[in-house]
Write a structure and sequence with these properties.
This protein is 52% helix and 19% strand. By secondary structure, it is an alpha+beta fold. The chain has a three-stranded antiparallel beta sheet with strand order 1-3-2. It has a three-stranded antiparallel beta sheet with strand order 4-6-5. Strand 2 and strand 3 form a beta hairpin. Helix 4 runs parallel beside helix 7 and helix 5 crosses helix 7. The longest helix is centred in the first third of the chain and has 22 residues. The C terminus is likely disordered. It comes from Ignicoccus pacificus DSM 13166. InterPro entries: DUF2067. Pfam families: DUF2067 (PF09840).
Length: 221
């Protein structure tokens, strides 16, 4: 018999208590000593090595199941979304991308309120993050222009290089030392581009009115 200590980080102390209660309900026949310290749940258990390995697997499954359930109600913790997507993105750009995809989305503190499914939000976050793998975006665009490319690529599935070309052609960006400079406020530039892309010439769908709606409920971050 050996002793194993499990340290589990939660988004808050309340979540730790909820997780502990679920663990105690679903896992039995093991000696465990538990403690919640702030947003950390500490569990000390005694058992055979194979039992402790199984216990760790069960705890991880319970925690994962809890996170999924918490992401079904339309109120999503930013921390949980980041963990699920394994990446971070600008929250104001994320809200605009969700809105242009036809969902309602706003931010309340450290939560996003939306009717988009959790897996859709995570897919959007991953798609936005992938844009930064493009060297021209990563090294030559200012952060505000990166947001524009992230949103348009994720919503309209346009290659980042093509978006940059359009931005240059319409004098939204111009060459500067070591890269490009955005010539106007990024939401205004995005509005112009969405209007262009949703015109009869391009016909890609949702229009600039959606940006107005999302812009009223988003915050820079």
């Amino acid at each position: 018999m050996i002793t194993r200590r499990f340290v589990i980080k939660c988004s808050s102390s309340d979540v730790c208590v909820e997780l502990l209660n679920k663990i105690m309900e679903e896992i039995s026949a093991r000696w465990m000593k538990t403690q919640v310290k702030g947003n950390t749940l500490i569990i000390e258990a005694i058992g055979m090595p194979y039992e402790l390995k199984s216990l760790r697997y069960e705890i991880e499954n319970i925690k994962r199941g809890m996170e999924v359930e918490r992401m079904k109600g339309g109120r999503y913790s930013v921390e949980d979304l980041v963990k699920g997507a394994k990446t971070t993105v600008p929250l104001d750009a994320l809200l605009l991308a969700l809105t242009l995809k036809g969902f309602k989305a706003k931010r309340e503190g450290e939560y996003i309120i939306t009717n988009a499914p959790g897996d859709t939000i995570i897919d959007v976050m991953r798609g936005m993050s992938e844009v930064l793998e493009n060297d021209e975006v990563r090294f030559k665009l200012p952060s505000s222009a990166k947001k524009i490319v992230m949103v348009l690529h994720t919503v309209y599935d346009i290659d980042p290089e093509r978006i940059i070309e359009i931005m240059k052609n319409y004098s939204i960006i111009e060459e500067a030392d070591f890269g490009y400079r955005l010539k106007e406020e990024w939401r205004s530039a995005l509005r112009r581009l969405v209007k262009l892309l949703t015109s009869d010439e391009w016909g890609l769908g949702r229009n600039e009115r959606d940006i107005e709606e999302a812009g009223n409920s988003s915050e820079d971050r």
